[in-house]
Write a structure and sequence with these properties.
Length: 330
Amino acid sequence: MTVKRSTVWQAALGMCLAVWGGSAAQAEAWPQAGRPIQIIVPAPGGSGTGDAIARLVGEQLARRLGSPVVIDNKPGANGNIGAAAAANGPADGYKLLFSWAGTLTVNPSLYANLAYDARKSFVPISLVGDVPNIVVVGTSSPAKTFADFVKLSQSMPGSINYGSTGVGSSMHLAGELFTRETGGKIQHVPYNAPGTAVSNLMANDIQAMFQLVPGVVGLVAGDKVRALAVMSAKRSEALPLVPTTVELGYPRLLSSTWFALLAPKGTPDAVVDRLNAEVNQIVSDPEVRKKLLSLGVTPLGGTRQALADLIAEDTQKWARVIKENGIKGF
C-alpha cells in the first residue's frame, strides 16, 4: 500500500500542532490553582534585607497569581548552597531563586568548582531592588567629609581599619574599590556578623565601614555614626542629605547589592515573561515602593535582558577587583 507524501506531512504537521498546542495550554495554565511556587533564598530566614525583600515579593506574587508562594531559606557557603539547589531544580516555573549580586557575580571569582553558573544555570526574570554601600565612620573620627577621609587614607596609610562581614562580601569589595579609585590605603578587618562590626565602629575599635544603607540608616539618623558618602550615582531616599561618590568626583566608585528573581534554565519563556511582568507591576505599586524605600532599597524592575547584562557586567567588574587586590578565593 502506498501512502501519499502529502498525507504524511499533514499527519506530521497535525502532531506538531497538537504538541505545540498542549505546550501553549500548559504555559497558559501556569500556575495551576493551589500548586505552591517555591522561592529559594540562599540566606537564613529573618537574616536581613534580602530575606525581607524576598518575603515582600513572595506575598505580592501569591496575591497576583492566586497560588501559594513558599519562601525556602537555604543558607550556607555564602549563598552557594541555595543557588545550587535552585539551579538543579525542575524548570517548570514552580521553583525560583531570589538572590543578589554577591552570590551571582562575586562568588564565581572566589570559589572553585561552583555547582552553578549564574549565566548558564538560570534564566533572568527581573531585578527587584538595589541597596548601595555607604561610607561611614565613627562620630569621633577626624574625617568630617568624604574628602577628609580620602586625605587621611592617603596620608596615613594602613592606620584606618574598616570592618566587613567577611572576605569577598559587598562591604569588603567596596573598601577595595575605594583604594583603587582614591589611592588611599586602608586595612580590612573581617567580621562574622555585621552587628559586631558596627558596635566596634561606634567604640572606635575600627575606624570605618562600607556598610549597606539599611544596616546603618537608623544609626546615622541617631548620630551614632557619621555618613560620608553613598556609593551610587543617585542619592538614597533613606538618607537624602548624604552626597554620592559621583557627586564628589568619583564616577567609578560605585558599589551596591542588587536583588533579583531568576528561574532554572529551561523554564518556559511564557512563564518567565509572566513573572517579569508581575515583578514590574509589584515594584511599581505605591505601597510596595514605600515599604522597599523604608528598608533603604531602591525599587528597580526592568527587562530580562537588563538583568542578564548586569550579571555579565558585574561579574567582570568584581573579578578585576578581586584579582588586582589579590583576594584569595575559597
